[in-house]
Amino acid sequence: MKAELEVRRLLRQWIVQHSKRDVAVTDLDDATPILESGLLSSIEVAEFVLYLEHLLGKEIPLDDLEADVFHSVDALWQRLFAPRAEPVRQRSREVRAQ
Amino acid sequence: MLPMNELATHLSRVSIEKACDLDRVFAWPEQLDAGRWCMSPELVSLYGTEVWDGLPAQRRLRLSFYEVVNFFSVVLHGERPLVQGLAERLYSRQSDPEVTDYLHHFIEEENRHMAMFGRFCNRYAGKVYPDKKIPLAQDYAPGEEEVVFYCKVLVVEELGDFYNRFMMRDMRIEPIVREINRVHHQDEARHLVFGRAHLRELCERWMPQWSRTTRQELRAWLCGYLRLCWGDFYNPSMYEDAGFADGFAMRRMAVASPAGIAHRRLASARLVKLLLSLTLLDEVPAP
Questions:
Q1: Alpha-carbon gap, residue A43 to A20, rounded angstroms
Q2: Other C-beta atoms within 10 Å of B121: how many?
Q3: Given an 8 Å threshold on Cβ–Cβ distance, is A92 in contact with B241?
Q4: Taking CB atoms and an 8 Å limit, are A46 and B132 in contact across chains?
Q5: Over A65-84, what HEC string results?
Q6: Phi and psi (nearest 5°) for A19?
Q7: Predicted confidence (pLDDT) at residue B92 exceeds the cutoff of 80
Q8: Cβ pairs A/B, distance under 8 A
Q9: Which residue from B minimizes the CA distance to A69?
Q10: Backbone angles phi, psi at B153, to 5 degrees
Q11: CB contacts, 8 Å: A46 with chain B
């Protein structure tokens, strides 16, 4: 698991790289509203979910995927990454029925 | 071209004739044959990449199994909001009674498809891959929400139908997979006729009333939505289940690969042609 500052930096970087808005990393802080300010739309959020799972190394349960999770980088950290965040389950590794 | 009410009456009649029962039509095997393809290899998302070329035969077959589970999961999740949306449109003041009658068949068939895909995925993989799309509230111009809804319907059905038409004729793949694709295509052919005609009518009714900005924003959304739907075919969990250590890296590689780009362009061609003719797109989007 990456350190908090590194995770926050990566999240801000992803948002800036994928936003349709003309925005620089320096324009964004951890409290900046991500959806309300239009930095990301539902189209980018779906890709963002996969990136979050990649950072976590785990699947995010569907119940945790509510719009308020994406309010800001602070909210993302608190809801998904912080040590007291609800545990997310390991990606299941099913074996093909033989 | 038939008026919508006559077209709906015709499609309802065919739906009644073609109605089928999942347990009677399909012979669900206890197990799948690990030595057969589950998805046609040419449709597997890594096909044509260096990774594919380096995979042993058994790994390719295993990947084709998870690819078809993912494909069925993607279509299932595409049909879920479709059924919700169609149900909301039943007995709408704006619909002809004949259209409402056909919507009943449409919903019934989509419900059966979801049961069919769900049964396959749960029976042989023990799961349906979850949908990661998060609905966000949005403001719409008059009629725009209706156009957006039927655009989503067509994207799901046109892309799915490309895969169905390919696999229903492929004698190399598991018979149950071939049969599911055949039955799905048979019903979807009617849904596509209805969806195309209805979307055309909606575009003619509403688009002249929209501002240039609304039309441009809708085109931008549609390009993004196409990209989003294609992204579902490159599911990191699917790659990891098939034995790849980093599913996210595999997704990025496959999406960016020349073979992947060429495949998406080919599979989207019929859909893009329709969207261009309706001026919902003004140029061919980047695949």
A1: 11
A2: 20
A3: yes
A4: yes
A5: CCHHHHCCHHHHHHHHHCCC
A6: -70, 140
A7: no
A8: 74
A9: B134
A10: -55, -50
A11: 132-134, 228, 231
Of the candidates B79, B74, B68, the residue with the CA atom closest to the CA atom of residue B45: B68
pLDDT at B276 over 60: yes
Q: What is the pLDDT of residues B199-255, one digit of tens each?
A: 999 999 999 999 999 999 999 999 999 999 999 999 999 999 999 999 999 999 999
Angle between helices B97-124 and B4-18 (to 10 degrees): 40
What would the two tokens of residue A52 be? 């979050």
Worst-scoring range by mean pLDDT, A60-69, A85-94, B24-33? A85-94
DSSP 8-state secondary structure symbol assigned to residue B37: B
Looking at chain A, which residue has its C-alpha nearest residue B64?
A: A96
Query: Which of A66, A93, A97 comes nearest B124 by C-beta?
Result: A97
CA-nearest residue to A35 within chain B is: B136
As a whole number of angstroms, the distance between CA B122 and CA B28 comes to 12
ipTM of the complex: 0.77
